[in-house]
Write a structure and sequence with these properties.
This protein is mainly alpha-helical and about 475 residues long. The chain folds into 4 domains: about 180 residues, Rhomboid-like fold (Up-down Bundle), CATH 1.20.1540; about 110 residues; about 100 residues, Tetratricopeptide repeat domain (Serine Threonine Protein Phosphatase 5, Tetratricopeptide repeat, Alpha Horseshoe), CATH 1.25.40; about 70 residues. About 70% of the residues lie in helices and about 5% in strands. It has 23 helices and 3 strands. It has a 3-stranded antiparallel sheet, with helices on one face. GO terms for molecular function: peptidase activity. It is a multi-pass membrane protein. Belongs to the peptidase S54 family.
Length: about 475
């Protein structure tokens, strides 16, 4: 059974950069640093087989497994059966891989080897085997950086979180990291998210080691840290009902439930699998520890250091879009009902809330045209021209400029600077005739200075020179001399 929270949709306008960075580091570690592991193991197996150690160790290894099963210290019954078959079939290579990767067995042989072999055999074995372990096995990434419960190092509590046992292990963890990380990162902020993520990994590793403190098998993977994100996720939403995706066998669907109600289900499942589930290499207690650590951190520090950012509780863009569409439709319906005063108030409120939506300002402009004597009409004209220029909406700018001048004529309240802005914009957009009209309006403005007109003339002359229009060049040069 699999249950995943999926309350928040992906928002690529605010990407989870820290989550993506952690994913990238995991991928690079796996393909660059861990890529040496295969070669190291193969060379160890070659030397192991050359020394004919499989024939010597395999019977002892089978006895080691069976003894652990009898004493209920080990649950690898299936492995013991497979080892027995391999011994019978003399599959030395397979036995070599299995035996070399069992550090507990090697530690037992170093300590008790003389109980199985004579002294000369033991010392000869130790000389060869120790070199294989030292030269190859100890250099495998999981042995160097993995978390070994019986020998915990501070650096390993962080390092193990970035190692993985295979491509499937990596891929599965990175998918979950992405699905959970983008929401938790948005809630906490990047730096706090990173610290909380790593701390969850540390605490889940310690929790795992507490239940298997004598084990020499290294723990690797981001599963504990990701479980911490799951704990933080549900603690952030608290008792709020959120959506969960679940998968059972071949059936999957969605359901809604209070976020925190799922936490004991997750923890209970991990503990059940640890005590009563089938034998597995999955670190269930690391998962349980991560869940408890993540949720506990939010509960304990949620009102201080780990406080949720205010913007996290703002409506998602999809919700904002729905609200905008409803209010916009309402404003348009008021226009169709000829309730123009109310419509203007609605469009003004929409523009104030959505200042990047120039369409709301355009609606206001057209509604204000109904009373072109009102100062607000002239004000919205200037504002629409300015916003159109900022957003590079040339057609809207020019249409507004021409429409305004045609409507008000000599009553225009546009400052000289606006005619100048339009002139430059027209030249940038290859609208020369419109630029000349803007120049004429500029020339007729009562407050225009000769210096501004000369500069405008010079700009037009430069443009006509590029077009090699001699008559126009001469026309504006004569005009400059008369200013």
């Amino acid at each position: 059974m699999l249950i995943i929270p999926v309350e928040r949709p992906l928002n690529w306008r605010n990407p989870p950069f820290m989550t993506l960075a952690i994913i990238l580091i995991n991928v690079l570690v796996f393909f660059l640093y861990q890529s040496q592991d295969t070669e190291l193991l193969e060379r160890a197996v070659d030397e192991y087989l050359d020394a004919d150690l499989a024939q010597l160790e395999a019977p002892v290894y089978l006895d080691y497994l069976e003894r652990g099963i009898r004493l209920k210290q080990d649950d690898r019954m299936e492995l013991a059966s497979t080892v027995a078959e391999a011994i019978e079939e003399r599959d030395a290579e397979w036995l070599a891989y299995v035996i070399l990767l069992d550090p507990g067995f090697y530690a037992m042989l170093v300590k008790e080897g003389t109980l199985f072999w004579q002294n000369d055999t033991y010392f000869a074995w130790q000389d060869v085997r120790s070199k294989i372990v030292e030269n190859y096995i100890s250099k495998i990434s999981s042995r160097r950086v993995g978390l070994i419960p019986a020998d915990i190092q501070l650096s390993d509590l962080v390092g193990y979180q970035f190692l993985h046992g295979g491509i499937g292990h990596l891929l599965g963890n990175m998918i979950f990291l992405f699905l959970l990380g983008f929401t938790v990162e948005r809630a906490l902020g990047r730096s706090k998210f990173l610290i909380a993520y790593l701390l969850c990994g540390v605490l889940s590793g310690l929790f795992f080691a507490a239940f298997d403190h004598e084990s020499l098998v290294p723990l690797v993977g981001a599963s504990g840290s990701i479980s911490g994100l799951m704990g933080m996720y549900v603690a952030i939403f608290g008792l709020q009902k959120i959506r969960f995706f679940y998968f059972v066998g071949v059936y999957f669907n969605y359901f809604k439930a209070p976020a925190l109600a799922i936490l004991p289900v997750w923890i209970g499942k991990e503990i059940y699998d640890y005590w009563l589930g089938e034998a597995s290499r999955v670190a269930y207690m690391a998962h349980a520890g991560g869940l408890i650590a993540g949720a506990g951190m939010v509960w304990l520090l949620g009102k201080s250091w780990l406080q949720i950012k205010e913007e996290f509780y703002e409506p998602e863009e999809t919700e904002q879009d729905d609200e905008f569409r409803k209010r916009y439709a309402n404003a348009l319906s008021l226009v169709s009902q000829m309730e123009f005063t109310k419509a203007k108030a609605r469009f003004a409120a929409l523009y104030e809330q959505y200042p990047d939506n120039i369409g709301m300002l355009e609606h206001l402009y057209h509604l204000e045209k109904l009373d072109d004597k009102d100062d607000r009409y002239h004000q919205h004209t200037r504002q629409l021209i300015d916003d159109s220029l900022k957003k590079n909406f040339f057609s809207l700018m020019l249409e507004t400029y021409k429409d305004y001048l045609k409507r008000v004529g000599p009553a225009s309240q546009l400052e000289a600077d606006y005619h100048n802005k339009v002139l430059y914009a027209c030249l940038r957009n290859d609208a020369v005739k419109e630029a000349e009209r803007a120049f004429e309006n500029l020339k007729q403005h009562p407050d225009i200075s000769p210096e501004v007109l000369k500069e405008a003339c010079q700009v037009l002359i430069q443009d006509f020179k590029k077009r090699q229009q001699t008559m126009k060049i001469n026309q504006y040069q004569r005009m400059m001399t008369q200013l």
